Amino acid sequence: MMATMDALNEKMGKGTVRLGLPEKNAPWHLRCANRSPRYTTHWDELMRAYTDEGAARRAN
User: Fold this and answer.
1) Would the pTM of this model clear 0.90, i.e. be above it?
2) Cα–Cα distance between 39 and 43 in angstroms, integer?
3) What angle do CA 1, 8, 25 make, to 5 degrees?
4) How far apart are CA 9 and CA 3, in angstroms?
């Protein structure tokens, strides 16, 4: 595989073919702030639903 990548990069230009690693500061790079909530894997991040305002205030 590496020989093929080297050959393609030599023919097409350096960096044309590379391993699937993101570039530093790439605009699409994963950012933790944009991460999906983990409702299905972390119990403490489950949403809570209350039937009245008093219950919501007591929980906070």
Assistant:
1) no
2) 7
3) 90
4) 10
